[in-house]
Write a structure and sequence with these properties.
The complex is a heterodimer of chains A (about 450) and B (about 240). Chain A has about 450 residues and is α+β, with helices and mostly antiparallel strands. Helices cover about 55% and strands about 15% of the residues of chain A. Chain A has 2 domains: about 200 residues, no CATH class; about 200 residues, no CATH class. The chains are: A alpha+beta (about 450), B alpha/beta (about 240).
Chain lengths: ~450, ~240
């Protein structure tokens, strides 16, 4: 019992323990805030990446694509684990954009073109919510409001507007009249240029009908969405059997990702077998079935690696905590050797002495973690207001919105993260105090008391 | 433990220390026997090994050679938990420099031995008794009003009385007192000696070490420690 009383008294009375508590609080604060923000950024990125392709992607490894997609989509839609599936055409094009009616001034881009059926695509991905002028109403996605008879296109929002300091795009309220001339190289089913020796490029003019903000930088800055049929013709995929580059699939909510993808993989293998011998069926063997994570692994892996590295680096702060606690306890044990001698002279065991200092370290960890957690929580709650204030008064932003594709700094508190940080801080205290506590327990009473008597 | 006449015996106790590369032999075969209810004073010059002997008698230190028996039991053959129990219940120590815990108040310092000897549950069961006994001891020692003061708020004599109270908390069979008046003025020291005399009259066995012959005269028997060995004297009437 005296262990708890003495430990609390040591914590309250010994000023040096305040430094230790402050160090622990600071470490908990920093680690908690950094992990929360980084985890939020990574989670947002992964969510946006997921929303851009759905759960599963059946895709060709080459730009040539594969045929008979309509039959396979019907097979998928008959399955109860599939909620929706949509065909996608992906290629690359030179794009000239002009708002000048005489085309005297224009901008050139090299963009990824994506041919989609807007309605089907929005059932699998978040396309409907990305639109700026037709949000929630994809039926008009490719119909410019100034002339619905024209063939529209939906470029990524970063192509049409720049970001302001608040991270929002400066997009006009009324749809501007902008024309895009899309030039790409159509390919045959055998992978050859379809227009070799005869101009080589397919060209078509589209009219700006909307902009898409998916939250994925690559898509928002380098992609233009075209109507499915138009894109298919442009890419030379319109001849029988008509081809596409990918099928995006969304599973029902209760379906596990891995089992859903496995089912799709089996269906595809059966389908390929069934189609053996059909025209251009060889293209079907060039197709892979991947989960959205695997399909985007290069981007997701980078984000996750960055997150892990930052957490590791800031986790090293835990080592600093261990060292500080070690030093503080070393000093406290040296100073308290007389107390240890007295306690042993009245019959305290080595284990009790060890327990006394470990309880002290535990209480220090609790106190420091509590302070750090409360301060970190409050900091996260007000982090965006603080950034706004700093920007208004000093033009300072932690993540410059002109460069970083984020809105508000993520600040959602995850109690599991907080609990993990607190437990780690307490463990670090116990580790730091272990050696000095053990040394205290091993002190011979006569040695410590003789020092006091000198 | 046996109830023979002698509560404590030291037989052929040797102890030496290393000072750098030189070995300093402090005790060179001490032979000592303490009767129950006796008030024994061990006198010796500074550095003669009195405190070393006292620490060995109280099992705070181990002899290099020889045996210390408490109620017939060889202390060197007891395990650590039995030694802890011995220090907690059988013997009470009073140090020259009081050695009170600064973070505890006077009352807590006195009942500390009882707390140290109990688990959390055991302490919760006996804490009322312990606090009551501690208050009673403080009252007997003239410190009833000082129970909630901290050691730094007390005079030297008061602190020494608190240390005596702590040593008596678990009703030890043997009280070991190391230079009880070493840091006190003569009047205060006298008051402490009166406390010890009163305890002795009540039947407490006391072994006191001192360098001062006049203080030693207050004991029932005086022995001298010189050249690492005991010389015997009787008490003058």
């Amino acid at each position: 019992m005296y262990k708890f009383i003495l430990a609390i008294r040591y914590l309250l009375k010994k000023r040096i323990s305040y430094f230790s508590v402050a160090a622990i609080a600071l470490c908990v604060f920093v680690v908690f805030v950094v992990i929360t923000v980084l985890s939020g950024l990574t989670a947002e990125f992964k969510k946006n990446t997921y929303l851009s392709v759905g759960d599963c992607v059946v895709s060709s490894k080459s730009l040539v694509g594969f045929g008979y997609y309509g039959e396979f989509i019907k097979i998928l839609e008959r399955r109860d684990f599939v909620e929706a599936a949509c065909p996608v055409i992906k290629s690359y094009a030179f794009v000239k954009g002009a708002s000048d009616p005489h085309q005297m001034r224009y901008q050139e881009y090299t963009l990824e073109i994506m041919g989609i059926d807007a309605a089907a695509h929005s059932q699998v991905t978040g396309f409907g919510e990305w639109l700026h002028y037709n949000r929630g109403d994809v039926s008009n996605a490719f119909k410019p409001s100034y002339d619905p008879n024209l063939v529209g296109c939906v470029p990524g929002i970063g192509i049409m507007a720049s970001r302001n300091s608040e991270g929002r795009y400066n997009i006009p309220e009324e749809l501007p009249r902008v024309r895009f001339e899309v030039n790409c190289f159509p390919l045959t089913a055998k992978g050859a240029l379809a227009k070799a020796g005869a101009g080589e490029m397919s060209t078509k003019t589209f009219y700006y009908s909307d902009a898409a903000e998916s939250g994925v930088a690559r898509a928002d800055w380098k992609r233009i969405y075209l109507p499915f049929d138009e894109a298919q013709k442009l890419c030379g995929m319109g001849t029988e059997p008509k081809r596409i580059n990918a099928i995006y699939i969304k599973f029902r909510p209760d379906v596990k990702l891995s089992s859903g993808c496995e089912k799709v993989r089996k269906l595809w293998e059966e389908f390929v077998e069934k189609k053996a011998g059909a025209k251009h069926s060889n293209l079907l063997e060039n197709v892979r079935v991947q989960s959205w994570k695997i399909h985007n692994r290069s981007a997701v892996a980078i984000a996750e690696t960055q997150q892990a590295l930052m957490i590791f680096c800031f986790g090293m702060i835990g080592l600093i905590t261990v060292f500080i606690v070690f030093v503080v306890f070393y000093m406290i044990v040296s100073h308290k050797s007389k107390d240890i001698g007295v306690l042993k002279s009245i019959g305290s065991s080595n284990e009790n002495i060890l327990g006394l200092f470990l309880v002290f370290a535990f209480l220090m960890g609790i106190a420091g973690s509590f302070i750090g957690a409360v301060c970190g929580w409050q900091f996260l709650v007000y982090i965006n207001q603080m950034e706004d204030w700093l920007f208004r008064h000093f033009e300072f932003q932690l993540f410059t919105r002109r460069m970083y594709a984020i809105g508000d700094i993520p600040n959602a508190i995850d109690l599991k993260v907080l609990a993990g940080v607190i437990v780690s801080a307490i463990a670090a205290c116990l580790v730091g105090a272990a050696v000095p506590s053990w040394q205290a327990a091993k002190l011979e009473p006569v040695d410590s008391l003789q020092v006091g008597q000198l | 433990m046996s109830r023979d006449e002698f509560i404590l015996k030291a037989e052929g106790v040797h102890k030496s220390y290393w000072m750098g590369e030189a070995e300093v032999r402090v005790l060179k075969g001490v032979e000592l026997a303490v009767r129950r209810g006796e008030f024994l004073a061990i006198v010796g010059a500074s550095g003669s090994g009195k405190s070393t002997l006292l620490h060995i008698l109280g099992a705070l230190d181990r002899p290099d050679k020889g045996v210390v028996r408490f109620e017939g039991r060889d202390l060197s053959r007891t395990n650590s938990s039995e030694l802890n129990r011995f220090r907690n219940k059988m013997v009470g120590f009073v140090f020259q420099f009081y050695h009170l815990l600064d973070e505890l108040n006077v009352l807590e310092n006195v009942f500390l031995p009882t707390m140290a000897g109990k688990s959390v549950v055991g302490w919760l069961r006996c804490r009322r008794w312990a606090k009551s006994r501690a208050r009673e001891l403080l009252s007997q020692l003239g410190l009833g009003e000082r129970a909630h003061h901290k050691p730094y708020q007390l005079s030297g004599g008061e602190r020494q009385r608190v240390a005596i109270g702590r040593a008596l908390m678990n009703e030890p069979r043997l009280l070991l007192v190391d230079e009880p008046t070493g840091n006190l003025d003569s009047a205060t020291g006298n008051a402490i000696l009166e406390v010890l005399e009163k305890l002795h009259k009540g039947g407490q066995t006391i072994v006191m070490v001192t360098h001062d012959e006049r203080i030693a005269q207050r004991a029932g028997r005086i022995i001298t420690l010189a050249d690492g060995k005991i010389e015997h004297k009787s008490r003058s009437a």
